[in-house]
Amino acid sequence: MTDVIFENCNLSNANLQNGLIYRVSFKDCKLLGVNFSEAGLSNVTFENCQAGLCNFVDTTLKTVIFDHTSLKGTTFANSQFKNPVFNACDLDDAYIGECPLKGIDISSCSYDRINVDLKHLAGCIVSPQQAIGFARLLGLVIKS
């Protein structure tokens, strides 16, 4: 797909595996369970979307913006990020495994629980409250 705008669409459970998605915008879309595994996304925007339980395994994401988007339970396993933006997203129970997070800013995002590899967390930009949560994962006891 190139130069496409999806607005108010329901693409839940679509299979976009191995797809090439370039200059595409998803606005106010329902994308529950979409399979983006092994796809290449470049200059893609997800704005105000319900994108929970999506599969981004082995996906390349270049200049992808997630803006006010729910990514609950979404899997980003072994994905390659280049200039991603996560702005005010819900990352509750998301799995971000085997993905270096250096330079990625999740400080405006919310979650009760997030699954990340501690070895890939170095350089990730987080809020002070998120930092306390990650420090507890490292076994530190926080004294107030």
Automatic annotation (TrEMBL):
Q: Which InterPro entries match?
A: 5peptide_repeat, PA_immunity-related
Q: Name one Pfam family in it.
A: Pentapeptide_4
| SUPFAM superfamilies xrefs | Pentapeptide repeat-like
Mind telling me what this protein is named? Pentapeptide repeat-containing protein
Origin organism of this chain? Sporolactobacillus putidus
